[in-house]
Amino acid sequence: MAGFIAHLDADAFYVSAERVRHADLANKPVGVLGNNGACVIAKSYEMKAKGVKTGTPIWDAAKMCPEGVYVKRDFYWYEVLSRKMLGIVGTFSPKLEYYSIDEFFFHAEPLRHGQQLATTATTIRDHILEATGLPVTIGIARTRTLAKLFSDTGKPFGAVAVLTRDHERELLAKMPVTEISGIGGKRADRLAPYGIRTCLDLADADGRLVKRLLTKTGHEIWMELNGEPVMPIRPERPPHQVLGRGGSLMGNVEDPKVLWAWCVRHVERLIEELRYHNVRTTTLAVEVGWKDQGWTGGTSNSPTPTDRIDELLDLARASLRRAYVTGRTATHMQVKATELRRGKGFQLSLFDKPDPKKDKLATVKAAINEKYGRFKVRTATTLYLPAVYRDPANEYDICDVRGKVCF
Amino acid sequence: MRAIALPTSELPDEVVKELHARVYTRGDQKEVRFDWRAVPALLPVWWNGRLQIVRWGNRDRAERKLPPTGWTWKATVEKGRWVGIEPEPVEIPANYVLANGVWFRVREGLRGLMVRTPSGVPAVFVVCEPATRYYRVMTRAEWMPVLIKEII
Ligand SMILES: [Mg+2]
C-alpha cells in the first residue's frame, strides 16, 4: 500500500505568532492589520466569532468587536517562526514540501514501529506547540487533497488520520464541495445541476463528467478524492508557477520616470510574495497596459534564482525597457516572476545567503521598511510617485490581504 | 489616544483594589483601564523606581498654570517650553492603547512628561507626535503618543 500524506496548517498563524511573543494576547480577540493599517489580514477565532473576516476594514472590525486588540503585521517574525516550524517537521519527515508560510505537506510515517498514524499526528502537533508555541492542525490521508480537506475541517488544533475508505466517505458526506480549495462559487454552480453538493457527491460522480465540468485539474481532484494520489509531495517544487503583482496605475501615465516608479513599487510587493512562498525567480516579466492600445511585455533573465531587490530591479529595468513604447499612455502594469525555484537544499534559516554584504543591506532595508512603513526606504526613483507615497490626501495604497485588493 | 489598559497582573494588588471600579475583563484576563474621561483621570507611571498612579494632565483646570489637557507635543517639550516647572520624562506602562475606538497593542508603553503642580501634586502628560501613516490609517488620528522603543 502506498504511503500516507500529512497536511500541516498553523491555526490563525499570524495571530498565533503574535501570541508567541505577547502571551497576554492569548484568548483575546486579536486582529493583525496589514502594513497600511487599513484592513484585518488575520484574526483570532475570538474575533472571527464576532463576524470579522479577512479583509474587513479596521473601522468595521472595531465596531463589530470593540474589545478587539490590533497589531501590525510583522512579516519577518512570522518568517522566523515558519522556518522554525519547518525545521521541526523536517525532523519527523525528510520528504517535506513547503506549501506556504504556514502550510506544509509531508510523508506521514509512524514515529515508532506499530504506532497508529493518529497518534503520530497528535505527537507532531503537540511537539510543535511545545517547541514553538504555535497551535497547528494536522490531517493525514491517502492523498494531498484529502489530507488538506481533513485538516481544514479539523481546525483548530486538530490531529486526524483518515485511513480507510469508509472513514473518508463518512467525512466527505458532511463537507460541502466548496471546502475543496479551488472549487469556489462558479465551479460549484456548474456542479449543482448534477446534484453534486458534497465532497462525497463529487467523489462518486462520473470521472468523465467531472473532467467536462471542471477540466483536467478538477479531474485530478476527483481522483485524489477517491484516494488515488496524483499530486505527489515534491520538496523542491514551488507551489506556484507564476507570482505577480500589479494593477491599475490610477490614471494615465506618460512620464517614463513615473512608470519606472510604479515598476519599483510592484517589484517590492512581488518580493514580499516571493518570500511568503519561500521561492526565488530567474525571470522577471514586466507587462504594460496602454490606453486603447493593448499590452506589451518584456522579460529578463538572471543566471541564478533571486529574491533580492537590487537584482530584481536590474531585471525589471531591462524588462520595462523592452515593454516600453515611446509616446503611448500607460494605464496598467504587471510585474511577474515566471520561473520560480526553490533552490537546492533551500534554506531553513533566513540569513544564510550567498552574498553576505549585499544581503545584509537588503535585510536591513527590509527590516527598516517593516519598521517604518514599507515605502520609507527606497530608491530616489519612487519620489516620482508623490501621489502614492507622500500625499496624505491620496490614501489609495493597496492592502496586504492575500489575493485581494482593497483601497 | 484616549485610554490605556494594563493587566491587573502587572499592577500592585493595592492599586488594583483601589481602582476596582476601573477593572475590566478582556478575553479571560482582567485589566485596569485608565481612561481620559474617568474622574479623576489617572495614569500609571514608572517614577522614582516604582510604579505609581498619578493624575493625568489637567482636565479639570485645577491648575491654572498648566494646559487644560492631558497631552503635550514632543516638539514643545524639546523647545523647552516646560522647563520652568522642572518636568521629568517618565514611562507610562501600557499593553493596549485606545484611540478613536481602536485598541492596539504596544510593546512597553508611552512616553510621558511628569510635572509637579504649584500645589505639589504630581501630574503626567502624554507626549505626542504627528501620526505615522499606519497610525493615521488605523485610527484616523493626526497625532499619536510617542511609544517606547517602537514605531508603528
Ligand atoms: Mg493556516
From TrEMBL, chain A:
Protein biosynthesis among keywords: no
UniProt feature coiled coil, ranges: none
The UmuC domain, residue ranges: 5-184
InterPro entries noted in UniProt: DNA/RNA_pol_sf, DNA_pol_Y-fam_little_finger, DNA_polymerase-Y, PolY_HhH_motif, Rev_trsase/Diguanyl_cyclase, UmuC
Gene Ontology biological process terms from the UniProt entry: DNA repair; error-prone translesion synthesis; SOS response
Keyword field: Transferase
Protein name: Nucleotidyltransferase
Native organism: Limnoglobus roseus
From TrEMBL, chain B:
Domain of life: Bacteria
Name this protein carries in UniProt: Uncharacterized protein
Organism: Limnoglobus roseus
